[in-house]
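Troubleshooting log. The previous structure file for this entry was overwritten by mistake, so regenerating from the original sequence record. Sequence copied from the archived sheet and checked twice against the printout by T.R.
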Amino acid sequence: MVAALYVQTGGCYFSLPHVEPWDQARDARLYAGPYPVVAHPPCERWGRYWGGSPTTFPRLKKGDDNGCFKAALAAVRTWGGILEHPEGSAAWHAHGLVKPPRSGGWIPADHMLGFEGWTCCVEQGAYGHKARKATWLYAHGVALPNLKWGKAPGDFLRLEDGFHSAEERRRAVKQGVIQRLSKRQRAATPIQFRDLLISIARTAVTFERVAS
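Regenerated output below.
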């Protein structure tokens, strides 16, 4: 079994054999084992627009995710598995993790802190996403496979990042600079990428497997 934490209700992790999904209603912060995990903690307060839109007032607090990332990181370290977050996530710095190179390859993430985690950068576009969607991974207690490193070949849609207003985004769409992806489309995990993360998590040696 693998536990899929912080996943969309009714999304691609639901109805899979040997996968236990934890959506928002179930509250993945409460996960207490015993299975290895694939964790997708929310990223809104850790990204470029952590403070909200340009019109949001008062500004939101950076890193204020109600402890989701901290709990996800602890679950991966405790039970083995893998966690994903957008490239550039401020959560890495906040939790003392080393930032991985965009070129790819696994590097030690937190060995200086006394843990044995590893981190890397991949593009989800190489695994079926409509956008490149560069992603940082943190793995602990699992086998580390070679992945599709570096810039994925092909043409991809641009995510709605780097714009300062809704009007600027609308102009870009009208001019053909980007094609709009819905929030759910941007957040969705491609099937190939989901299967990759599950396969990595399943290499963890858990208490359940030791007992059996």
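The chain is about 20% helix and 15% strand. Archived copy saved in two places this time.
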